[in-house]
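Practice problem: predict the structure.
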Amino acid sequence: MSNSSRTNGLALLERLPTPRSPPSVSRPIVGLAFWAAIALPFLHMPLLVTGLETTRMTAAFLVLVAVNVIALVIGHGYGSG
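Answer:
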């Protein structure tokens, strides 16, 4: 393969559009994340009211907080589009 054909091939690849997920797939995921971010704090309350006495309860609380943060990041643009 010569350098000119390799350059032409690279130029063709650079002009191709970047693949994006179709809006029909990403919109429901963003919506689900948005509503999960709203609902998840209600699951924190029973753990906080009863106290984080055991390591299992503390781990469950930390996992819920991490999932809530992820849902906030994914769902933050739900109403803007």
